Structures are given as C-alpha cells and as structure tokens.
C-alpha cells in the first residue's frame, strides 16, 4: 500500500502528466502557468489558491508576473512528487 508521502513512480508521473497536460511534470516537481487579464485578476486567483492550499495543508511555490501566475508543486519533505501534489493539481485545475 502506498503512503501519501511516497514518491510517485515513473509510471505514476507519466499518468499524472497525461491526466494534467497543462502541467510540466518532472521527477521533482510539476508546474503550470495561468494568464489573466490583469494583475488584480491574477492576485484574485492567488488568493483562491491560498485558501485551497491551506485547507489541503499543502502549499505551492507561487511566482507572480503581472498577469501571469506560475504554480510549482512538490512535496519538499519527501524530495519530489507525491500524491499530495497530484491531488492539489486536480483541485487547482478545477479553478
């Protein structure tokens, strides 16, 4: 049985990439960039992400560039991608 903190296998990362084609998946992390009409819209998105991440107790790295927001997911304690990242990616895709 897989623990949620276990690193994803190569096959699981390939499936994650197929399930979330907007994300760039590497062995260590996954990232995606969203583009908005302006800075205020981008910040509104970041606020929604912050609320969801806090509820999940799993926080992405956030890079804000005016109307673009890049989120990077990685379970730092585990040293790479885990099911926590896959679950949060699915939640973020639903935004």
CATH architecture of the domain at 28-93: 2-Layer Sandwich
3D shape: globular
Give the count of helical stretches: 3
Detail the poorly predicted runs: none
Sheet-strand content, in percent, reads 15-25%
Broad structural category: alpha+beta
For the secondary structure, the number of strands is: 4
Q: What is the average per-residue confidence, as pLDDT, rounded to a whole number?
A: 94
Please explain how this structure is put together.
It is built from 3 helices and 4 strands. A 4-stranded antiparallel sheet has the order 1-2-4-3, with helices on one face. It has about 100 residues and is α+β, with helices and mostly antiparallel strands. Helix 2 (about 40-55) crosses helix 3. The termini are far apart. Helix content is about 40%, strand content about 20%.
Strand and helix map with partners:
Blueprint: H1 10-19, E1 24-25, E2 30-35, H2 39-56, E3 61-65, E4 68-73, H3 83-93
Helix pairs in contact: 2-3
What is this entry, summarized?
Helix content is 41%, strand content 20%. The protein is α+β, with helices and mostly antiparallel strands. The longest helix has 18 residues, at 39-56.
Give keywords.
Gyrase A, domain 2, 4-stranded antiparallel β-sheet, globular, alpha+beta, 95 residues, 3 helices
